[in-house]
Amino acid sequence: LLFAGRNVMRLQALLGDPAGRLFGVDPTRDPYPEYERVRRRGVLVKSRMGLHLTASHALSTSLLRDPGFGVLAPNALSPVDSSAHVGGRRLVNPVEESFLVLNPPEHTRMRRLVAPWFTPRGLRAQTATVERVVEDYLDEVAGRPTFDLVRDFAGRVPIQVIADLLGVPNADHTAFARWARALVNAIDGVRDLGEMRALHQGLREFQEFLDDLVEHRRREPGPDDVVSALVANEDLSRDDLIATTELLLVAGFETTVNLIGNAVLAVLGHPEVRERLLDDPSYAEAVVEETLRLDPPVQYAVRVPFATTEVAGTRVPGGTPIMMLIGGANRDPGVFADPHRFTPGRPEAREHLSFSSGIHYCLGAGLARMEAAAALRGLFRRFPDLRAAGPVVRRPSRAIRGPARFPVTNGVKK
Ligand code: HEM
């Protein structure tokens, strides 16, 4: 735990001071003016703590695709010490032991195992489930004149979709959602050893749950879920299996919640967009794409050069983190016309880096797009007059951007 505590401090030290004010300010504040300040300072900007930052679209893209750069070494910044044991069980770090932070060749091997669920064919097979999940949660809020868009809708759809993808039996969905939420909240907000212990405890319980699920699927494989397929693969260790399952949850849950939240915020802020969406529900896809660009749920990615190298005229020693400000790159005027404007359907829409680029390009991008579009279509079809019913509270996170609390009124007169 103490070792893990030091890691938290390193994490905070690293995030505490990029480019002076950038992350030293209230994390719920609009970060986009800060990214513009980084852009004005240069293509690659060095903070006092030695962290390099870029808001350049061209540089971010080339670094993300450069085989001379990799993801940070596992554990370097993690709030979970992978040698930690709780109750005699080794904790598998859900992020740091997954392929999100592996470099090739291990990355390639692990990513391949789950890729089939995310092909266009795999996604088509999931569309009906996603639409059903959206309608189920809309049914639940339909009787209430006001509800919280995040707690009661956006926060529930993705977790249900992932539970189905992983093959969690229906009877366990409530427990699964509870662990998933505890895990994701803790990872976002570990500030001291008390929270660290809570995270470790939650992780242990969640892993027990997954171990049980694995046993269940060994005895009774489902027809097409991820866990049943991974269990059948004899080359995969228990820890790899747990890490991959947890990655799908951690990577696909909160990100999608925030995409739906940000997209609804954008629609409420642009009456002409709402009008068009009501006329043509297929417009939801363009709205989701432009939300991804202008207000991305994941605000940055980090890469390190394997060896000392020159980047935009600066000598960068091997192993030095470079932070690519996705939210800044997505407003690079060299790529996006009138970059601060919300313009669904703009021709260069898909140039954004919200799903990263290169070998770690988000595996779930298609699922996220499909889910968010289904959520928007369903929501505005059901509640065409949806309105904010109080102040929106932003998530207190620098890495993930979206509303934490978002009271709405469904506009239906009783
Ligand atoms: C990777 C964003 C939804 C699974 C990533 C990365 C980003 C990202 C930026 C790359 C990080 C890096 O380059 O360092 C998002 C956003 C989402 C979303 C904004 C929703 C709006 C999902 C969903 C799933 C998923 C729904 C699956 C259920 C993954 C996986 C990786 C990943 C497995 C690791 C890929 C690799 O390392 O090869 N995501 N994601 N994501 N995402 Fe997503």
Task: Describe the structure concisely for a colleague.
It is built from 16 helices and 14 strands.
Description:
The chain is an alpha+beta fold and 414 residues long. The chain is built from 16 helices and 14 strands. The protein has helices spanning 2-16, 32-41, 57-65, 106-114, 120-142, 149-154, 157-166, 173-188, 193-219, 226-232, 238-252, 254-269, 271-279, 284-294, 326-329, 365-382; strands at residues 45-46, 52-54, 69-70, 85-86, 89-90, 146-148, 300-305, 309-311, 314-316, 322-325, 387-388, 393-394, 403-405, 407-409. The protein is globular and about 55 Å long. The N and C termini lie far apart (54 Å). Protoporphyrin IX containing FE binds at residues 99-100, 111, 162, 247-248, 251-252, 255-256, 259, 297-298, 301, 354-356, 360, 362-364, 367-368. Residues 99-100, 111, 162, 247-248, 251-252, 255-256, 259, 297-298, 301, 354-356, 360, 362-364, 367-368 line the site of protoporphyrin IX containing FE. Belongs to the cytochrome P450 family. This is Cytochrome P450. InterPro entries: Cyt_P450 (IPR001128), Cyt_P450_B (IPR002397), Cyt_P450_CS (IPR017972), Cyt_P450_sf (IPR036396). Pfam families: p450.
Helix/strand structural class: alpha+beta
Strands, count: 14
From the 3D coordinates, which CATH architecture would you assign? Answer: Orthogonal Bundle
Q: What Rg is obtained from the alpha carbons, in whole angstroms?
A: 21 Å
Bound molecules: protoporphyrin IX containing FE
Query: How would you write the strand order of the largest sheet?
Result: 1-2-10-7-3
Along the chain, the helix and strand elements come as HHEEHEEEHHEHHHHHHHHHEEEEHHEEEE
Q: What is the CATH class?
A: Mainly Alpha
CATH names the topology as: Cytochrome p450
Portion in helices: 40-55%
What is the first-to-last residue Cα distance? 54 Å
Please count the helical segments. Answer: 16
